[in-house]
Records
---
Amino acid sequence: MKLYTAMKPYAPKTWDLSGLDGISDATLETHFKLYEGYVKNTNLLNERLAELRKNEKNEGENPAFAELVRRLGFEYNGMRLHEYYFDNMTKRPSALSGGKLYEALGEAYGGFEDWKRDFMAVGGMRGIGWAIAYCDTTNGAITNHWIDDHEDGHVAGFVPIVVLDVWEHAFIKDYKPAEKDKYIEAFFRNIDWKACEARLP
Ligand SMILES: [Fe+2]
């Protein structure tokens, strides 16, 4: 049998986002720790799976193996979506009032402001998850999607352009549970549109 080699662990990224408008440093500090937990758990899952593979315990009938494989979507997405989220914020934001991204976001919704209204509505849905504006690489269309937890609702092959965390931990230190809309407005004041535009395929 070919020897199984365990994959290289992921290293957590860091961001300098202190002083955001409407999203406190205390919230960010907690959030960075949660993100680091996802990186740690992704690595842990891979280590444990590597161990099972090494011992030829990677069988579909093995509940331990199956549970670890099922959790990959949660932990990997928890890691990667937070990276997209922190990457698309900046403490030196500039307004988006034209250009390639502005046009692309507005195309399927009638205009940028209509896209924004829809994206905010998706973010404002009840429950925990993510609002993501995704680009379909087959036709260039950008559409807004709701992701339950970290893993349910992604569209295969679509590229994330704007990524918003709407789990309660993202805003509960700064706003009341019923004030998610205020947090979403704050997110919009801190978006790094250049980073989002660079994601366009
Ligand atoms: Fe989060």
---
Amino acid sequence: MIFLDLVRKRQSVRKYLDKPVEREKIDRCVEAARLAPSASNSQPWKFIVVDGKHLKNKVANATFSKLVSFNAFVPRAPVIVVVTIDKPKLMLQMGNVLKKTNYGLIDIGIATEHFCLQATEEGLGTCILGWFNEKKIKKILDIPKKNKIGLVVSLGYSGHETIREKKRKSVKEISNYNNYKFD
Ligand SMILES: Cc1cc2nc3c(=O)[nH]c(=O)nc-3n(C[C@H](O)[C@H](O)[C@H](O)COP(=O)(O)O)c2cc1C
């Protein structure tokens, strides 16, 4: 697919078909994520693919609550991917402090989007989830204390029939050549 068409086709999918996802397709998504760039090439990510129904439902149920119900669609996804961030090495820890940033979070954001774009190419739908109960998911999946969960992704065949129009700022609002002049 032409890259821009692929980017236009990716959308957050919150409705899934009751259809299992082939592992070879998921493996290609992980491969796309594996090739992502990262600060100091640290590759601080782990992708925990949860496709066993019982375990998957337990993880999915930790992405919403009665109070925060916008992720209540997640249990209907047949696969959940939990993206963790390794504890940074000393040099990167220093970099994070000196530059007042979190390179690990940036890195897994890029890798996760690689994953999602490959999923689109495979005819699959994804939704990146930034809201979840980290403590609960870490317990369910036995994730070591020192590893942080950065993102969770729901994955499956989309139940949406159309690609929604993207609600985005215009190019003029977000980009300029050679100056920072925005109204
Ligand atoms: C870091 C991040 C966290 C997000 N968290 C959630 C979430 O918890 N629940 C959800 O339904 N969508 C979540 N989204 C999806 C966004 O709402 C969505 O990407 C945005 O509205 C643009 O729509 P589109 O993905 O369909 O183009 C998240 C997206 C990102 C990048």
